[in-house]
Amino acid sequence: MVVLGASFDAPAANRAFREKFDFPFDLLSDVDRAVSIAYGVAEDASQPRAKRISYLIDPQGVIQKVYPEVKPAEHIAEVLNDLG
Question: Which of 10, 26, 40, 80 measures 20 to 30 Å from 66, CA to CA?
Answer without folding.
Answer: 10
